[in-house]
Amino acid sequence: MTDIGSTGSMSDGEIVAWLEQKSNDQYHGLKAEMNASDQRAQLIEALTDARAAVDGNDPNTAYDKLGNIAASSDDPDTQAFVFEQQIGLLGWVTHGDTKSDELKGTIDQSSLSDKDKQALKDKIVHERAVMDATDTNADTDENRKVHDQQKQHVSEALDGRTTDLTHVDQVAMINIQQAVSDAKQTQELASNILSSRSQASLAIVGNIRG
Predict the structure, then answer these.
(1) What's the CA angle centered on 179, arms 31 and 69, to 5 degrees?
(2) Exposure pattern of 141-174 as b/e (b: 16+ CB <10 Å)?
(3) Residue 86 — pLDDT band, cuts 50, 70, 90?
(4) Based on CB atoms within 10 Å of each CB, which residue in 31, 40, 90, 96 is the most buried?
(5) Paired strand residues for 10
(6) pLDDT computed for residue 78 by the predictor
(7) Is 107 exposed, middle or buried (0-12, 13-18, 19+ CB in 10 A)?
(8) Cα torsion for 135, 140, 142, 147, to the nearest 10°?
(9) Three-class SS string for the chain?
């Protein structure tokens, strides 16, 4: 028998069961952390690709890439952010009026709250009003200025988001390393306890035999 913390006396079987449960919990948490890190890495890559298209004066590709992110994400915060950037590109992409109607439908089908959906659709209405007031696809000096402003705004927003996600992932990697270390310590503790018990049993048998 042995005493572990405040749990009182525990048999070998109880000790092993406790350590096994602790190890399972640790590895479950570690797996969740690693899956979350993988998802962040994929999101960072996708946002970086979308920003590259914006900076490369290819709003249509950027718009589609952002749409793919929204479609593959079940995180409301990510969806809302991506939809907002798509709205910011409506005056720059081709067939922005058609895309705005499609985007409204996509927003309605998303997992966002009704309040957030309405806020985004209100932004689309405002953007449509600006688009209807001028032919934003016409190659004029004024429109080029508008497009440059849209480009800068969306590019900076995407850059800020990827930077934030990178910082979050750096902290997560530290947590993952700590979780791996804790899991190894649990395994070593279990091994040491069993080894110690085995040696003690052999010593007792040896003393009995004389």
Answers:
(1) 40
(2) eebeebbeebbeebbebbeebbeebeeebeeeee
(3) very high
(4) 90
(5) 2
(6) 96
(7) buried
(8) 70
(9) CEECCCCCEECHHHHHHHHHHHHHHHHHHHHHHHHHHHHHHHHHHHHHHHHHHHHCCCHHHHHHHHHHHHHHCCCHHHHHHHHHHHHHHCCCCCCHHHHHHHHHHHHHCCCCCHHHHHHHHHHHHHHHHHHHHCCCCCCCHHHHHHHHHHHHHHHHHHHHHHHHHHHHHHHHHHHHHHHHHHHHHHHHHHHHHHHHHHHHHHHHHHHHHC
Q: Two tokens at 22?
A: 């602790």
Could you tell me if residue 95 is left (phi over 0), alpha (psi between -120 and 50 degrees) or otherwise beta? left
Closest CA to 61 of 73, 74, 46: 46
Distance CA 85, CA 63 (A): 8
